[in-house]
Write a structure and sequence with these properties.
The complex is a heterodimer of chains A (501) and B (495). With 501 residues, chain A is mainly α. Chain A has a domain at 302-501. In chain A, 77% of the residues lie in helices and 2% in strands. A 3-stranded mixed beta sheet of chain A has the order 1-2-3. In chain A, α3 (83-110) runs parallel beside α14, α5 (139-158) runs antiparallel to α6 and α10 packs antiparallel against α14. The mean pLDDT of chain A is 90. By secondary structure, chain B is mainly alpha-helical. Chain B has one domain (2-490). In chain B, α1 (7-24) packs antiparallel against α4, α3 packs parallel to α13 and α11 packs antiparallel against α12. Chain B is globular, with a radius of gyration of 21 Å. The chains are: A mainly alpha (501), B mainly alpha (495). At the A-B interface, α17 and α18 of A face β2, α5 and α6 of B.
Chain lengths: 501, 495
C-alpha cells in the first residue's frame, strides 16, 4: 500500500474555528467589534484552506489524511478527506463565511448586546461541530462533533427574539437528543462487533458480519438517528419551528449547512462504512428511503403551499428538498448520486439566499408573513431580485442551479428504471412553482398596503445585501457553468457507488 | 457546411441589450422608444444578413457555453430557424411603431417595463429559433414564458392578473413537468439533445419509450395551444393589444408550433414518425383542434377572443402540416408560420386600432365601423380573406401546400378537415367584414360620417402588414425557398 498523503490541513478545519470560538468572548472584552471580526477571520480562513484542501484532493491522490498524535489508524483518530467531504467542507465554510459577513447588523438588531460575544462564540462552535463531522474518519469522533453542533444549534435558536424560540429550541433539543442517542447506540453496536471505530477499518471488517442481527440493528439505529438530524419526513417536525424562530442570521446557516451535513453523514455511513450492496441486497434500506424521500418531496411542497410565514414556508420547502437529496442517494447509481451531491450544494445556495433575503426583509420592515411581501418589489429592489432569482432556481428554471440538480436526479431515476420517481420530481417542481411564483407575483404585481407604503424605500445595509446577492448570483453562475461542481460530484459519486473509475 | 459566426448571438442579444438601455432611459420616453426602434431594425438586419448563407444551404453555428457534460447552449441557424426569425424580427419593427402609438394614445402605466419586457421576449424568441439543441430551446422557451408574464398582466387589474396567472400556470406548469420529462427522456434514450436532419431516436429505442416521449412533447409544448390545453391563449387576451398582436399571434404561439415542428422533424425524424404511426395520430389531434376551435370562434362576441380561437385553430394547421410528414406538408407548415403571422397580426392591429379609436371590443358593436375607420377595416378585411384562403392573398399558398401534403400522404380525410375549416373561417370572419361595411351604424354614430382613425403609427403599421399579406402571395420567394429547403433536408438527403 502506497503511503498516504498526510497533511495537517484537515486538522486545521477543526482547530481554527475551535480556538477562535474560545478566544471570541475574551477578545470581545477588548473591543465589541472584535467578536464578529474573529468569526469573519476564522470562517474566511477556513474557507480558503478548505478550497486548497479540495483542490489537493481532486487534482492529486484523491485522498488526504491526518493522524491525530501521529497514531496510525485504526488505533488513533484519523481525519480523512476525499472528493465527497472535500466538497461539503468547502460548502459549509463558504456558507459560514458569507453568513458571518451578514450577521453583525442583523444580530445587533435582534439580540441584546450583552449576549453578542456568546452568540459569536457559539456560532463558531456550531461551525466547528459541522466541520468536524465532515472531516473526521472516526465514527465516535463523528458523534462528538454531532453533539457539539447540535448543542450549539439549540442555544443559537433559543436566542431568537420571540418567546416561541425557546419552545422551538426545546423541541429540537428533545428530538435532536433522541437522534443523537440512536446514533450513539449504532456506534456502540458496531464497536461491539468489530472492535474498531475507524470508518475505513469498519468498511473492511463489516462485510463478513452483514447478516448479523447486531449489525442490522446498528444500521437501523443509524438510519433513524440520522433521519431525525437531517429532517427526513416524517421526522422533520422539529425543523419548521426551529428555522422560523431562530435569529435571522442563524436560519440561513442551519438551513444551508446543518441538514446538509446530516445528509452527508447518511451517505457516508450507507455507502462508505457499509457497502452499497448491503443497502440494496441485505436489507431493503434504499427502497424504504426512496419511498420516504418521495413522500417527503410531495408533502414538503404541499405543506409549504399552506404556510403564511415566510421562514416557515422556506422550512417546509427544505423538507421537500432534503427528500431530493435522499432520493438521489438511494437510487444507488452514479447519475443519481451526482444529483444528490449537487443538490446538497445547490440547495444550500438557493435556500441560503432565500433565508438571507428573508432576514433582510425582517431587518428593514419587520415583515414575516408571505402576504406582507405584497408590493415590496419597489421598496427593496435588490433584496427582492435576490429572492426572485433564488425562487426561480427552487422551481427549477433552466440556467439556475435548481435545474442542474433536477436534471441529474431525473436522469438517475430513469437509469435506475424508476420512471415513476421522475413524475414525483416533476410534480414537485410544479408545486414549488405554485408557492414561489405566488410570492413573486405578490412582490411585483400587487399594490403595497398602507403600512408598507409609509416605509421609506431602500434595501438593507450593504453588509447584508452583499452576502445575499453573492448567494443569489451563485445560483445562476453555477447554473450556467456547472462543470466544476458536476466534476467533483461525479468524482465523489464514483467513489461511493462505483460504476466507472 | 457549417459556418461559425457570432451573428446569431448578436441577433439574439441585441434586444436584450436594448432592454437594459430602455430601463436606463426610463425618464426620457422618446430616447427610450428610440432604443426599441433601433434594436428592432438592427435585429432584423442581422437576421436578414444570414439569409444568403442559409439559402445557399449552409448553416450558421455558434457555441455559447457548456453547462455540464451533455448539456450545452448552442445556436445553429438553419432554414427553419431563419424563416421563423425573419418573420418575428420583421414584425417586431412594425409592432414597435404600433406599440408606441398604442401606449401613448392609451396613456398606459409602466411603459418602461412594457418595452423592456417586449425586447427581452424578442431575444427569447430568436434564441428559440436559433437553438441547436433541445436544451437551448427549452431554456429560451421558459424565458419567453417568464418575460411575457408582466406583459399579459400589464394592466394589473384583478382581471388582468387572473388572466396572466392562468397563462403562466398553463405554460410553466406543463413545460416544467411534461416538457422537462420529455427532454430528460430524450437524453436518456439517445444520449444527445442535438437536433439532426433525420432525428436522433435510433432504431434501438423501444417503441413505448418513443411514444411516451412524443406524447410528453405534445403535452409539454403548450404554446402550440392545442386543445384541450389552449385555455391560456384566450385568457391572455387581457393583455394590451400590441402584446396580443406580436406575442399571441407571432412570438409566443409561433415559438410553440416552431418547437413542435423542430421536435417532429429534427428530434424524432420523418422516418420514425411515419413508421410508428405517431405522425398520423398527431394529424388527427391537430384536426380535432382545428375544427373545434373554429366552432368555438363562431360563438365569440369579443373580437380579441374570436381572434384568439382563430389562432388556436390556425396554429394546428402548422402542426398538422408537419405531422403529414411529406415534403409539401412540411413546406406548407413552415410557410404558414410566416403567412399566418402576417395575417393574424394585421387582424390584431385592427382590433387594437378599433379599441383605441372607439373603445369597442365586441363584434356586435362594429356596425358600420368601416365608414369611420376605412384604412383599418380594409386592412382587416384583406387579412381576414387571407385567413380564409381567398386569392390573391398569402393564406391560399400555405393552404395549397397543406392540401398537396395531405394528398401526398394519402390522408384524404384531412382534405375534408381543411375544407370544413375554411368554411368555418369564412363563417366567423365574414360577418365582421359584413357588419363593418354593409350594416348601417345605429344611434348617434349614424350621424357622423367623418373618418376618425386611430393614431397614424398604428394605422401605418397595420397597412404595412396587410400589404405584406398580399406581397407574400405574389412573391413568397424567400419564405417558400426556406420552407422547401426545410422539407428537402428532413425528408431525405441534405439538399
Amino acid at each position: 500500500m502506497n503511503t498516504p498523503d498526510i497533511t495537517p490541513l484537515p486538522l486545521l478545519m477543526v482547530v481554527i474555528p475551535l480556538v477562535s470560538a474560545l478566544m471570541t468572548p475574551i477578545l470581545a472584552r477588548i473591543h465589541r467589534s472584535l467578536a464578529f471580526l474573529t468569526v469573519q477571520a476564522a470562517t474566511i480562513t477556513s474557507f480558503v484552506l478548505a478550497c486548497i484542501l479540495l483542490d489537493r484532493v481532486t487534482s492529486g491522490s484523491g485522498k488526504v489524511v491526518y493522524w491525530l498524535g501521529n497514531w496510525e489508524p485504526p488505533y488513533g483518530i484519523e481525519y480523512s478527506v476525499d472528493a465527497l467531504n472535500g466538497l461539503v467542507l468547502v460548502l459549509v465554510a463558504f456558507v459560514a463565511a458569507v453568513v458571518s459577513v451578514y450577521a453583525p447588523k442583523s444580530v445587533a438588531a435582534e439580540i441584546e448586546a450583552s449576549k453578542h460575544p456568546f452568540f459569536y462564540a457559539i456560532y463558531l462552535l456550531l461551525f466547528t461541530g459541522l466541520m468536524g463531522i465532515v472531516v473526521t474518519g472516526d465514527i465516535f469522533n463523528l458523534y462528538v462533533f454531532v453533539e457539539i453542533s447540535s448543542l450549539s444549534g439549540y442555544s443559537l435558536i433559543a436566542m431568537g427574539r420571540r418567546r416561541e424560540a425557546l419552545t422551538a429550541s426545546y423541541n429540537y433539543l428533545i428530538l435532536g437528543t433522541i437522534g443523537a442517542t440512536f446514533i450513539l447506540l449504532g456506534i456502540g453496536h458496531l464497536y461491539m462487533m468489530t472492535g474498531t471505530l475507524n470508518m475505513a477499518d469498519l468498511a473492511r471488517l463489516l462485510p463478513p458480519l452483514y447478516h448479523s442481527r447486531v449489525i442490522l440493528t446498528a444500521f437501523a439505529l443509524f438510519t433513524v438517528g440520522l433521519s431525525i438530524k437531517l429532517a427526513l419526513f416524517p421526522l422533520h417536525v422539529w425543523m419548521p419551528n426551529a428555522y422560523t424562530y431562530a435569529p435571522s442570521a442563524v436560519s440561513p446557516l442551519l438551513a444551508a449547512t446543518g441538514t446538509k451535513v446530516g445528509a452527508y453523514v447518511l451517505i457516508r455511513v450507507m455507502f462508505t462504512v457499509f457497502h452499497p450492496n448491503f443497502d440494496v441486497q441485505v436489507i431493503p434500506a434504499t427502497r424504504i428511503l426512496l419511498v420516504l424521500a418521495a413522500v417527503a418531496i410531495l408533502m414538503g411542497s404541499l405543506l409549504a403551499i399552506a404556510q403564511s410565514n415566510i421562514k416557515r414556508m422556506l422550512a417546509y420547502s427544505s423538507v421537500g428538498q432534503i427528500g431530493y437529496i435522499v432520493l438521489g442517494a438511494a437510487l444507488v447509481n452514479r447519475t443519481g448520486m451526482t444529483g444528490a451531491l449537487l443538490h446538497i450544494v445547490n440547495h444550500a445556495l438557493m435556500k441560503g439566499a432565500l433565508f438571507l433575503a428573508a432576514g433582510a426583509i425582517v431587518y428593514k420592515t419587520g415583515i414575516e408573513t408571505v402576504e406582507g411581501l405584497k408590493g415590496l418589489g419597489r421598496k427593496m429592489p435588490l433584496t427582492m431580485a435576490a429572492f426572485t432569482v433564488a425562487s426561480l432556481s427552487m422551481i427549477g428554471i433552466p440556467l439556475t442551479v435548481g435545474f442542474v440538480s433536477k436534471w441529474y436526479l431525473a436522469l438517475g431515476a430513469l437509469e435506475a428504471g424508476m420512471w415513476y420517481l421522475v413524475i414525483v420530481i416533476l410534480v414537485s417542481s410544479g408545486l414549488n412553482a405554485i408557492y414561489f411564483w405566488r410570492v413573486i407575483d405578490w412582490i411585483y404585481f400587487s399594490p403595497p398596503n398602507e403600512r408598507l407604503e409609509a416605509l421609506p424605500a431602500g434595501d438593507a445595509p450593504w453588509s447584508m445585501m452583499g452576502p445575499t446577492l453573492v448567494m443569489a448570483a451563485l445560483c445562476v453562475v453555477l447554473g450556467v457553468q456547472a462543470q466544476w461542481p458536476v466534476g467533483i460530484a461525479e468524482q465523489a459519486a464514483a467513489l461511493l457507488v462505483g460504476g466507472g473509475r | 457546411m457549417d459556418i461559425t459566426s457570432s451573428t446569431p448571438l448578436l441577433a439574439t442579444g441585441v434586444s436584450l441589450g436594448a432592454a437594459l438601455l430602455i430601463v436606463l432611459f426610463r425618464r426620457h420616453p422618446n430616447i427610450r422608444e428610440g432604443w426599441t426602434i433601433l434594436a428592432a431594425l438592427t435585429k432584423f438586419a442581422l437576421v436578414a444578413s444570414m439569409a444568403p448563407a442559409i439559402l445557399r444551404g449552409d448553416a450558421i453555428v455558434c457555441h455559447l457555453v457548456t453547462i455540464a457534460p451533455g448539456l450545452s447552449l448552442a445556436f445553429r441557424v438553419d432554414a427553419l430557424g431563419e424563416a421563423f426569425a425573419l418573420t418575428a424580427s420583421f414584425l417586431w419593427i412594425v409592432t414597435s411603431f404600433y406599440s408606441i402609438g398604442y401606449v401613448r394614445a392609451e396613456k398606459e402605466h409602466a411603459q418602461t417595463r412594457y418595452f423592456a419586457c417586449f425586447a427581452v421576449a424578442l431575444s427569447a424568441t430568436l434564441g428559440a429559433a436559433f437553438s441547436a439543441n433541445m436544451l437551448t430551446t427549452f431554456v429560451f422557451y421558459e424565458i419567453l414564458t417568464l418575460c411575457t408574464f408582466p406583459l399579459v398582466g400589464h394592466k394589473q387589474t384583478t382581471e388582468a392578473l387572473q388572466g396572466a396567472r392562468k397563462y403562466l400556470a398553463y405554460l410553466l406548469g406543463t413545460s416544467l413537468t411534461f416538457l422537462m420529462a420529455a427532454v430528460v427522456l430524450t437524453y436518456y434514450a439517445t444520449g444527445t439533445l442535438d437536433f439532426s436532419p433525420s432525428g436522433v431516436f435510433g432504431s434501438d429505442v423501444s417503441g413505448t419509450l418513443v411514444s411516451v416521449a412524443f406524447l410528453l412533447y405534445v403535452l409539454g409544448v403548450t404554446k402550440t395551444a392545442m386543445m384541450p390545453l389552449h385555455g391560456w391563449l384566450p385568457a391572455a387576451m387581457v393583455a394590451p393589444t400590441p402584446v396580443s398582436a406580436l406575442l399571441h399571434a407571432v412570438a409566443v404561439v409561433k415559438t410553440g408550433v416552431f418547437v413542435m415542428v423542430r421536435v417532429v422533424v429534427n428530434l424524432f425524424g420523418v422516418d420514425l414518425l411515419s413508421r410508428s404511426g405517431l405522425g398520423t395520430a398527431l394529424v388527427w389531434y391537430a384536426s380535432f383542434t382545428i375544427i373545434l376551435a373554429s366552432i368555438i370562434a363562431l360563438r365569440q362576441d369579443n373580437l380579441k377572443r374570436r381572434l384568439a380561437y382563430s389562432t388556436v385553430s390556425q396554429l394546428s394547421y402548422i402542426v398538422l402540416g408537419a405531422a403529414l410528414l411529406t415534403p409539401a406538408g412540411i413546406t406548407g407548415s413552415v410557410l404558414h408560420i410566416a403567412i399566418h403571422a402576417f395575417g393574424k397580426i394585421t387582424l390584431f392591429f385592427g382590433a387594437g386600432a378599433i379599441y383605441v379609436a372607439t373603445h369597442k371590443t365586441r363584434v356586435s358593436e362594429l356596425d358600420g365601423i368601416g365608414r369611420r375607420m376605412p384604412f383599418t377595416m380594409v386592412a382587416f378585411s384583406l387579412a381576414a380573406l387571407s385567413m380564409i384562403g381567398v386569392p390573391p392573398f398569402a393564406g391560399l399558398i400555405s393552404k395549397w401546400y397543406l392540401v398537396r401534403g395531405a394528398v401526398e400522404a394519402g390522408a384524404l380525410p384531412v382534405l375534408l378537415v381543411l375544407g370544413t375549416s375554411t368554411l368555418l373561417n369564412a363563417g366567423y370572419f365574414l360577418p365582421i367584414v359584413y357588419r363593418a361595411f354593409f350594416v348601417a351604424p345605429s344611434g348617434e354614430e349614424a350621424e357622423s360620417w367623418r373618418i376618425r382613425e386611430a393614431p397614424v403609427p398604428m394605422v401605418a403599421a397595420l397597412c404595412v402588414t396587410a400589404i405584406g399579406v398580399m406581397a407574400l402571395f405574389f412573391a413568397p420567394s424567400i419564405f417558400l425557398e426556406l420552407a422547401r429547403q426545410v422539407a428537402r433536408t428532413v425528408t431525405g438527403g441534405i439538399g
